[in-house]
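User: I'm new to structure prediction. If I give you an amino acid sequence, what do you actually give back? Let's try with this one:
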Amino acid sequence: MRNTFIGHSFIINNFVVMIGMQLKDSPCRVLGEGVQYQWHENEDKIVIPDVSVNCNIRAGKMCH
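Assistant: Good question. You get back a string of structure tokens that encode the predicted 3D arrangement of the chain. For your 64 residues, that looks like this:
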């Protein structure tokens, strides 16, 4: 199980770097594991995606 977690983490990190490089001149930012979102459309459930791209970041605060 430990190798699966490490492999998954490597994939996520590589994906974040690759997408982040493509978005470097845009207002969007790519974020890795551990960022929590609260979707109001989904009965206010907390979702923690492996990777997310947010194009609506204002004053250091995540907007959704």
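You can read the tokens as a compact description of the fold. Here is one thing that stands out. The mean pLDDT is 79.
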